[in-house]
Amino acid sequence: METSTIFIYGSALSAAFGVVYLPVLMRQPKAFVSPYARADVRKRASAAITDALLVASCLVLYWTHDSIPFAAVGAVYLLFRDALFMPGQSIGKFLFGLRVISLDNGRPCGRVQSAQRNFILLVPGLNVVAVALEAAAIGRDPQGQRLGDTLANTQVVEGFSARELVTTLQRALLDVQIAQERREQPVEVKSVLVDGDARSSIIGEWQT
Description:
Layout: H1 3-27, H2 41-65, H3 68-80, H4 91-95, E1 98-102, H5 111-118, H6 126-140, H7 147-152, E2 154-158, H8 162-184, E3 189-194, E4 197-202
Antiparallel strand pairs: 1-2, 3-4
């Protein structure tokens, strides 16, 4: 297939998607009003950029090495990123403290829902215009839901982040260090007179 044919195909598909996007988004019924607060838009943008850079790196490796596995890895990550390594979190969302939850039960989304909310970003021709339209939908919707979220019945909320993980590990290491120092702290021993007999008595206390 020639480059011009691919360009025409992609342009036509993008135009058609742009025309039907808003009507499809508006006609998708929501099961109920979400009780969850809307996630910070700036965090979502930062997480999306991080994930996009990971996918772009795979594409660059595909083009420079002419190796299909690199493209496959990028496609798999883009499709299942929100549940590939951590439930409800892509690498970008984990770094910026976001999580995708299912509105059916409030739990982190699985791989099926991840594929449902991300497949339009994988289809050539759709993904170009979908990025702009989905970003606009996130800013417009009260819960920050885009078309992918509506199709999968999911929502992005605040979640466990890499910073919190580091803080938790630091506290755990500090607790271990304090416990070790307490074990190594010598106990003061003094002799006291009891009924005329000198006996040793431990009267020292652990010091912190």
